[in-house]
Design a protein that fits this description.
The chain has about 280 residues and is α+β, with helices and mostly antiparallel strands. Helices cover about 45% and strands about 20% of the residues. The chain has 2 domains: about 160 residues, Regulatory protein AraC (Jelly Rolls), CATH 2.60.120.280; about 120 residues, Homeodomain-like (Arc Repressor Mutant, subunit A), CATH 1.10.10.60. Strand 1 and strand 2 form a beta hairpin.
Length: about 280
């Protein structure tokens, strides 16, 4: 482990080049960047296989469970929790909430340009250098370097979605939609509900999502509900009825139909299959 920094208020920042380190999979409360600098990285996120190639980076929330890590080359993880840097409280600084970090079933993976990889490499070097300075300013300097890392990735994500330049303000509505879905998906499952919160019409939202190459707003809502359902079924022993209730379904049969439609298998079949894996 290259950096393992804890603040007096129990904030944590971890930088590690050995992805076999238990911190990556043991701590469920950490936001995670996994960056493949050279070679490749195979892993599972919520039991779904993923393979990252050289130059790719993925950002994961504390909701995403990481497993079956197999690194072949130079791979790096940068981990932090909300006590060290709160992406909600500092959204105006880095604008990553709902973009880099949201609870959907498909985490954002980015192919970084050579220039951005070079910039991130310098930030990592400066993080390591600041970690060696043992004075009262170290915590804030480390936080500043983390913020720079997040901003570079946010810019890469905006470019990935064609949302830089004049499209930035429009894409911010899409980003806020993801944030609101993460907050309200248990009780609000209509696009109209979120359109009202954003003071836009459902049609305007659909057009914005299409312009940014994103799935439809309704698909985003359904994906978030389904992602939570899968996590509850994977990582708890709650019954289908209990999961349905937690997700706002009064009718367990309706929830079972929704799950089967989204996943192509029944709840019972899903649990049996994933328990065997």
């Amino acid at each position: 482990m290259d950096i393992a920094f804890s603040t007096p208020l129990k904030g944590n920042l971890v930088l590690c080049r050995d992805l076999r380190d238990a911190e990556l999979t043991r701590r469920p409360d950490l936001y995670k960047f996994l960056w493949v600098r050279q070679g490749a990285l195979s892993l599972e996120v919520d039991h779904v296989p993923m393979r990252l190639e050289a130059g790719e980076i993925v950002s994961l929330t504390p909701l995403h469970h990481v497993g079956s890590l197999r690194a072949d080359g130079d791979c790096l993880s940068l981990l932090f929790d909300s006590n060290f840097y709160c992406i909600f409280g500092h959204d105006g600084e880095v604008s990553c909430n709902g973009l880099l970090f949201n609870g959907s079933s498909e985490p954002l993976r980015l192919a970084l340009s050579a220039q951005r990889q070079e910039v991130l490499g310098r930030i990592v070097d400066e993080l390591c250098a600041e970690y060696e300075v043992n004075d009262g300013l170290r915590e804030e300097m480390l936080r500043m370097q983390l913020k720079r890392f997040i901003i570079v990735c946010t810019r890469a994500a905006r470019e990935h979605f064609g949302a830089d330049g004049p499209q930035e303000q429009l894409f911010d509505i899409v980003r806020r939609f993801y944030v609101l879905v993460d907050e309200h998906f248990r009780t609000r499952r209509r696009v109209q509900d979120y359109a009202e919160l954003l003071h836009r019409s459902p049609k305007t939202l659909s057009n914005l999502f299409a312009a940014c190459g994103r799935p439809s707003p309704l698909s985003v809502i359904h994906d978030r509900v389904n992602a939570e359902a899968r996590r509850l079924l994977l990582y708890t022993d709650k019954s289908a009825k209990e999961v349905a209730y937690l997700l706002g379904y009064e009718d367990t049969a309706a929830f079972s139909r929704f799950f089967a439609k989204m996943n192509g298998e029944s709840i019972t079949g899903f649990r049996r299959r994933t328990q065997r894996e």
